[in-house]
Amino acid sequence: MSYAIQSLLTQDRAALESALSLDSTTARIEVQMLLQHVLGVNRAYLLAHSERELDEAETAAYRALLQRRLAGEPLAYILGEREFFGLNFKVSPATLIPRPDTELLVELALQRIPHGLVLDLGTGSGAIALSIAHSRPDVEVTAVDASAEALEVACENTRRLNISNARFIQSDWFSALTGERFDLIVSNPPYIEDADAHLEQGDLRFEPRSALASGADGLDDIRRIISDAKKHLNDSGWLMFEHGYDQATRVRELLEASGFVEVFSARDLSGIERVSGGRYAGASTQAIR
């Protein structure tokens, strides 16, 4: 049996709405994206050729992808890519899926990079590091991740985007960076509580747990980053990272207790304090403190 594009958009939109509790607009966009991927066309083509019928091979390929989505698998993993900060990144189950909220961290980083060296901790797909490197070809970006599989994805994204001012190192946070210092350190670390029920819901079920959860209060890795960052920051260097929707106050307290100054939190488009950071005043100032 053959199916026309328009009929698939109608019937499968309804199926996604029902299975995944999506709103009608989101469900329709997802069906369009699956069809675009299978047919190798853009959205304009689908709209202009809504009566076109898929052949047997196209129908089979589309149905296979649709079933994966109906089972809850994230669309980004099915398609193998996700747009972030105006760039198209390959993603895989070895990496977190880049999210629009994280673009705030990139924007704040770009505002505070005077020159020199940038470090991205827990880079995953490389979305943060490569967005910074692409926007600022005059700086050198180092990115680390403990996962070799994630670094393979990040390196492929470097090649796809033709970025030459970024390097990737396998490292458990700062462990492979002895003696190296940077002017800016950024991170989107794990920050969900280990027992949070959301880890078993939605897209999070499919993403690497090690990149999501961090101790009883979700702050174990953030504590470690704050504690170790000063050994890897040049004087007046900045440390900034994403965190949970209700963690800003505690994170600011941790930064201030560790001697960071000009500590701040910034809100995302939803009005949630999503990114916090501070400036390292320097070793001499720390001694006075």
How would you describe this protein?
- The protein is an alpha/beta fold and 289 residues long.
- It has 2 domains: 5-72; 81-288, Rossmann fold (3-Layer(aba) Sandwich).
- 40% of the residues lie in helices and 19% in strands.
- The protein is built from 11 helices and 9 strands.
- The strands form 2 sheets. The protein has a 7-stranded mixed sheet with strand order 5-4-3-6-7-9-8, with helices on both faces. A two-stranded antiparallel ribbon has the order 1-2.
- Helix 2 (24-39) packs across helix 4 (56-70) and helix 6 (103-112) crosses helix 7 (127-135).
- The protein is elongated, with a radius of gyration of 21 Å.
- The termini are far apart.
- The model has no long low-confidence stretch (mean pLDDT 95).
Question: Key terms for this structure?
Answer:
single chain; Rossmann fold; 2 domains; 11 helices; elongated
What does the secondary structure layout of this molecule look like, with pairings?
Layout: H1 5-20, H2 24-39, H3 43-48, H4 56-70, H5 75-79, E1 81-84, E2 87-90, H6 103-112, E3 117-121, H7 127-135, E4 140-145, H8 148-161, E5 166-170, E6 182-187, H9 220-229, E7 233-242, H10 248-257, E8 261-267, E9 273-279, H11 283-288
Parallel strand pairs: 3-4, 3-6, 4-5, 6-7
Antiparallel strand pairs: 1-2, 7-9, 8-9
Helix pairs in contact: 1-2, 2-4, 6-7
Order of H and E elements:
HHHHHEEHEHEHEEHEHEEH
Head-to-tail CA distance between termini: 75 Å
User: In one word, what is the shape?
Assistant: elongated
Mean pLDDT metric: 95
Q: What's the number of helices?
A: 11
| CATH homologous superfamily title of the largest domain | Vaccinia Virus protein VP39
Q: Tell me roughly what share of residues is in helical segments.
A: 40-55%
CATH classification class of the largest domain: Alpha Beta
**Percent of sequence in beta strands:** 15-25%
Low-pLDDT regions: none
Q: How many individual β-strands?
A: 9
Largest sheet: 7 strands, mixed
CATH topology of the largest domain: Rossmann fold
